[in-house]
Design a protein that fits this description.
Layout (H helix, E strand, L loop, with lengths): L5 E5 L6 E5 L11 E3 L3 H10 L3 E9 L2 E7 L5 E5 L16
Parallel strand pairs: 3-6
Antiparallel strand pairs: 1-2, 4-5, 5-6
């Protein structure tokens, strides 16, 4: 999957953020992404519990992301921070 465009709006003093994207395979409605320890492990667990994988795990800046749908039709977006947290200010030059 190729990342076409995206940006995150970080809330001060928390690890919460709003992410804007134009990735066409990710559902376009407003969604809450749930943080898990490991997306690959979580997807395997949810699949074994009867969930359908809509978007298989893919790389993002901070780790991995995936989209599943539970047996009741609820879409769940999950992500992890296995690559570490996003730098506090991506606009600052990295040395």
């Amino acid at each position: 999957m190729e990342w076409r465009w995206g940006g995150g709006l970080v809330f001060a003093e928390t690890d919460a953020e709003i992410v804007l994207h134009r990735e066409t395979v990710i559902p376009s409605s407003v969604e809450v992404y749930y943080k898990v320890d490991d997306v690959v492990v979580a997807v395997a667990h949810y699949a074994a519990q009867g969930c359908q994988i809509l978007v298989a795990p893919f790389d993002i800046t901070i780790g991995k992301c995936a989209v599943i749908i539970d047996p009741f039709g609820m879409r769940l977006c999950i992500l992890d921070t296995t690559k570490g947290l996003r730098p506090s200010n991506l606009a600052e030059p990295q040395s």
